[in-house]
Amino acid sequence: MKNIAVSVLTLLLSTLSSVCDAQAIPNKHLKECSLKGRTILVTAPENYSVRLCDAIKKKGGKPIPLSTIETTINPDDSAILEVLQNQNKYGWVALSSRKAIDAFCGCAIKHRYSIDSLKVCTMGKDTEYMQQQYRVKAAITPKEPSPEGIVKALATIPGTNGQTIAVVAPNIENLTEPDVIPNFLSRLKDIGMEPVKIEGYITRPTTAHSKKEIEALFHKRRIDAIIFSSATEAEGLAKLVGGNDQLNTVMVACFGPYTAANVKKMGVKVAFVGTNYSSFEAFVDELCTFINHQN
Questions:
Q1: Tetrapyrrole biosynthesis uroporphyrinogen III synthase domain: which residues (predicted)?
Q2: If exposure means fewest CB atoms within 10 Å of the residue's CB, which of 4, 200, 216, 250 is most exposed?
């Protein structure tokens, strides 16, 4: 009986070891995944592109930061001031981008308003940024880092029905407005809230790059992929190169499904859509695996 027990135990340990080894393969693959020799064009504004480029470098890739849009704080802060002066009316504020955080919190500091009575919604890493830069804690940071994630989180909170929520959004100049914010406002209405759009910052095509400079990147240097974190970046790049033809000669990667949907509407082929877009590091991990599997 003793020999049988030993044999059974040995078999179980061997089986367990095999299972553990099999489960370790994906993690090992992700850890060893490399972007060495890959050149990736990053079109995000500077406040995002720095972190995205760092994530690419950590994987051995060569990022080319080339912001195709610029975002600036709206000099007319009267709409934000109206929210700050009537905090008893606005129970909630949605800040769905870093620039929205800068616009709203910066205005509060400038005009010496406390926002302690407001419940603020943010997404992903921007929650940490807001707390570190402005010492403001988010009331909601949804698991899904998207406007729809905010809607789903708000829908689970009792008492939000009928409450007014200020949505700090961009004023889009000389670009097509993606449907992200309009859909966000519509979905907030669906759960019984009363959204008010506040144009806290401005998004416009950049004037920092010439068409000749951009075309040289496509003709003289091999670009393995372009990363778009918003559809406005894709449109901004298309304007710089004179259309979508150049964009469709390179692998296009989008930060998430909402960006991808709007980029596809432009007629641009999207090869990769991130499913883990809670951070740039997670996105680049996925992209790295995808690119390596193409070979």
A1: 54-277
A2: 4
Q: Could you give the CA distance from residue 153 to residue 268 in angstroms, rounded to a whole number? A: 32
Q: Both 160 and 59 in a single domain?
A: no
Domain count, the chain: 2
Q: How far apart are CA 190 and CA 183, in angstroms?
A: 10
Q: How far apart are CA 22 and CA 14, in angstroms?
A: 12
Q: Which of 24, 32, 56 is nearest to 42 (CA)?
A: 56
- 34 with 58: CB under 8 angstroms? no
Proportion of the chain in helix, strand, coil states, percent, rounded to 5: 50, 20, 35
Phi/psi of residue 87, nearest 5 degrees: -70, -20
* Three-class SS of 76-89: CCHHHHHHHHCCCC
Q: What is the pLDDT of residue 52?
A: 92
Q: What is the pTM of this model?
A: 0.78
Measured from the Cβ of residue 91, the count of other Cβ atoms closer than 10 Å reads: 19
Rounded to whole angstroms, the Cα distance separating 260 from 269 reads 9
Residue 18 falls within a domain, yes or no?
A: no
User: Which pLDDT tens digit goes with each residue over 194-226?
Assistant: 999 999 999 999 877 766 777 777 776 678 899
* Together in a domain, 77 and 196: yes
DSSP assigned state of 242: T
Residue ranges making up the domain that contains 175: 71-204
